Fold each of these.
Amino acid sequence: MPQRPYNFSAGPAAMPDEVLHHAAAEMLDWHGSGMSVMEMSHRGPQFGHILSHAEADLRELLAVPADYHVLFMQGGALAENAIVPLNLSRGAKADYVVTGSWSQKSQLEARKFCDVHLAASTHSASGYGSIPPIELWDPRRDAQYLHYCANETIDGVEFQHAPTRFSLPLVADMSSTLLSRPVEVAAHACIYAGAQKNIGPAGLTLVIVHRDMLGRALPSCPSAFDYAVVAKNSSMYNTPPTFAIYMAGLVFQWIRRQTEGALQGLAAVAERNRQKADLLYACIDASELYTSRVEHACRSRMNVPFFLRDERLNDAFLQGAQQRQLLQLKGHKSVGGMRASIYNAMPLGGVQTLVDYMHEFERSH
Ligand SMILES: *Cc1c(COP(=O)(O)O)cnc(C)c1O
């Protein structure tokens, strides 16, 4: 089969070829069952096996402590923007840190359910591109939790470490960074992520929540979104997104098989992600044509927005990229410019091909 184009989509994003081939091979008959995974009862033994393996692999990859629940939910990260305050705010105070478009959406949604205060915010006329020093954050002591977005997919702003200075339960939207590097799960009360960036197909939302956070949902919280109900029913209170869970499980196994030098699994993937991001930012920084608007210390390893200093060249840049089989590089409509999303499934060779093209384009313009 000819090599597929390199796909820089921010999400739904490229999946590893190996995973797609694997799923294709067992599409009509999963392990001699005579059924496709999407045709199975979610309560049958076959799907039970798929779900429990997916959870075990995820727990191992992220070293999830035993006192955390792993929930397989639906609705995406935007639904979690409501589900989190419904479950964790007690209708009282909740504090948010705004470092980009997604955390901005989170805090606006939370206002429907609780008293929101911005512990820090970085919006400026030129958009987002930094994280305020943690010494300057002013969360309320009696807030039920402090929410942040670990990686701002649109703006390219990423926390390099969990912001653990305060004693408040920490809640993180990790939609576009979960499984790109090791994460300090124990520093968090709750982590959530829509799958379609770095985990699997759209339709699945992962939630990792400490057991002490369960049982405080508002009475108005829909049962299917009540963490305690979902946990008690092992993510099968209602029909879970079975096929998306199966695909995510294949991705978890793929990550476990990765090696990079002496590194294995998530450590190998993280090292490769660092190399990919370094290569691309080095190209941008050395160039007279391309520029990044994000401060060095918080540049995302997953989503790299960049701009052409002469914006009239945008269309020509995108056209040339398309001709070289470099797909979906156009920036988010709210930001403009370009954005290269380089999740786990993007090989180093894909970033090298992009960088070669960027050099060539700069020389000829
Ligand atoms: C994509 C994304 C969202 C939105 O996810 P949906 O699945 O569309 O609800 C929210 N937050 C972050 C960080 C994202 O990357």
Amino acid sequence: MVRAVKHLFPTKADEIHADWQWQLRHQIRETSSLLEHPRLQHARIQQRLRLALEADRSLARSFRFALTPYYLSLINPDENGHCPVLEQILPAPDELDASIYADPDPLAEERHMPVRGLTHRYPDRVLWYTSHHCAVYCRFCLRKRKVSHADSAPRKSEQSAILEYIASHTEIKEVILSGGDPLTLTDAQIGVMLAELKNIQHIISIRIHTRMPVTLPMRITDELCSILRAHYPLTLVTHFNHAAEVGPQAFDSVRRLRMAGVLVLNQSVLLRNVNDTVQDQEDLILTLLRAGIKPYYLHRCDEVRGVAHFRVPIETGRNILRELRGRNPGIALPRYMIDLPGGGGKVPYEPDYLQEIGTDAEGHSYYRFQNAFNTEYRVRADRPHSDVD
Ligand SMILES: *Cc1c(COP(=O)(O)O)cnc(C)c1O
Ligand code: SF4
């Protein structure tokens, strides 16, 4: 049974799309709604949609399907029925297979929680889960275990316990507002949180981790921007995975954030069938740079239950970065990061340009490097005249 979904095909798109609350009220929550979409009639997509529908019957209770009409408007499959946006949101039968990675929390985020709703893993930084809601639910989400569940959402009483913890731990330098998506909260709630954190002397950096510029750019309103401006300096880390996600509204939302004095960075996840080629990553980082966003991290997809079908070999990301370096502006290159299972934290795993450490005929030690174009160069390791020291 296919429900009639008039709002999927708005006639006055510009008017309707401009209101972020309208977008959330009209979130698409039924996989079946997509079957009728005019851009999704390709035979391969229809087959894929039916599989998604079937899988969602079992998955919906643990991880919801939902997207904004805006994000739906970005879906534009090629002649083979492939679309990097669609791939990110469609439930897949593979999500039901828990045989490969059974752990819902391989990064031990729940174990490193001194107070409910706060992960304190690194000595100097804390991650605050401010909301379990998002504008769009991404199938590769590393917090599938709790994101999208209304009943597990953070409680109001937790907020004061969290603020007390942060205030009494002077080793904490940075607070990361994460979730879910912190920008699902109201402007007033966000304003209060930022003000409270700014009041704590030892907090030198506040970061907001949000996918709103990607999934609901109209959330970046003038009102929100004036709150962010008032709490300068702030860093906002967003999450574009593909150049196809960076449309005019996304550009505009980032421009407004930058005008409000916010540093805008991007983290993406390396995902099979979404962005696992050199071309995908080059298009992404150059489009981000054009939009005024600095690519920060490219994450290896974590060993989370129900996302194994998105994973690619660990070397894929490293090889992609090797291809990108030397051919693209250095400021456009993200770091390739592996989050160690068991809660070890993140480590970069990047191309190695060092070929050899040796000693020349005069007894000077040298480093032999290969540049981005495979030519080799020797670099003297010591200070000049270090041998007479
Ligand atoms: C990723 C992460 C951070 C932030 O790490 P950065 O390398 O500073 O971006 C902080 N806390 C936890 C638990 C994390 O997983
Ligand atoms: S926006 Fe972030 S937290 Fe929300 S579902 Fe997507 S990846 Fe998960």
